[in-house]
């Protein structure tokens, strides 16, 4: 249970959260027409006669959009409904040329499922399962632009008819952190499956945030819905602001109105958009132009067979290889990172050493360069070669850092750099002994102190030896030879 509470004048309040996530389906064509779906095209250049609702046009379902929604449902262990139906949701708005949206209210394609999130990446005991009510497929509306002209609004119908999956959670979340974890996990699953690119900045994934408050253990309160929130951070901010606003309102003797609100990120406030409509306000009825969807077993089997290894399964596999829970969660959070790391393992890297190196060294370098892992200047094959040189004692860990920097600059492989720059680690006891003898002779006072019981001086002798040998001495051999001479 979450211990997140809003402190009010009359005591503690609990927040109850549900999310309706609209995820744009990855498809080259719209849900019911062949019009293109590329982001950023000139306004009104990707509009077919169907999208513009010209008389006599008939919608035809896009098989790929249905397939992607089914695969998404399978990825969250949801009920797949072999029979589903499209409904018309009637409302009149300038960006909706038909005067209705084709959606699935009564018989959705995907029924109940669930997602398990970790509230603390290092602690399996922090897992929480959040229920999913349904996933239905619907078409997007166009876009109104109010800032292009002093007296008129412009309409861009490029998005009109684009396929969306609406993923409706149950009201199972109890804190901004839980909602953030859920949204991040859902986004990761969609991107692993390949059904949505998860790009919240471009609007291909956005959330409607349902928030209500109650005294712990009491009945649910009246909820508000804040529309079209387009980042995890903003979703969490909406919950904090809206929960506090509702508590203050109730404690002052007011009542929460069931309404639709908008979030202003600049001021970090929500404001009323319109009173909340119910299903009867939209006069839903079955779409007379579309037959019900009936899915065959062979189609469902093909969908299931096409699913990749999903984040939870991949994390468990990584942990079974000896990788820490934290590193495994970091490496599986983004599908590109997980794929790159799998390539590193396929190239022969030792899992635990490789995970530590990627999380510390590679991520550090990529952050510094402002690059993503797909643009990494060091390939997985070259990284495996570098780690192999450390593992077999050819170079030390500290020399590996130098080699890695040179790999980033030049694009060369690790072995070539080590050869060219003469960076091989030496395990030659003769050379190491000679340097140790010089250091012990030059620090006779410290040798006496060490032998008198000041054991911590051992590190000083190791450091001096490594420095004298320019970091190229094998640390294990240095330790062994020093002990032999000092003890």
Automatic annotation (TrEMBL):
Family statement: Belongs to the GatB/GatE family. GatB subfamily.
Q: How does it assemble?
A: Heterotrimer of A, B and C subunits.
| Species, as recorded | Sphingomonas edaphi
Q: Which residues form the Asn/Gln amidotransferase domain?
A: 339-486
| Free-text function comment from the UniProt entry | Allows the formation of correctly charged Asn-tRNA(Asn) or Gln-tRNA(Gln) through the transamidation of misacylated Asp-tRNA(Asn) or Glu-tRNA(Gln) in organisms which lack either or both of asparaginyl-tRNA or glutaminyl-tRNA synthetases. The reaction takes place in the presence of glutamine and ATP through an activated phospho-Asp-tRNA(Asn) or phospho-Glu-tRNA(Gln).
**Protein name in UniProt:** Aspartyl/glutamyl-tRNA(Asn/Gln) amidotransferase subunit B
Q: Which HAMAP family match?
A: GatB (MF_00121)
GO biological process: one example:
glutaminyl-tRNAGln biosynthesis via transamidation
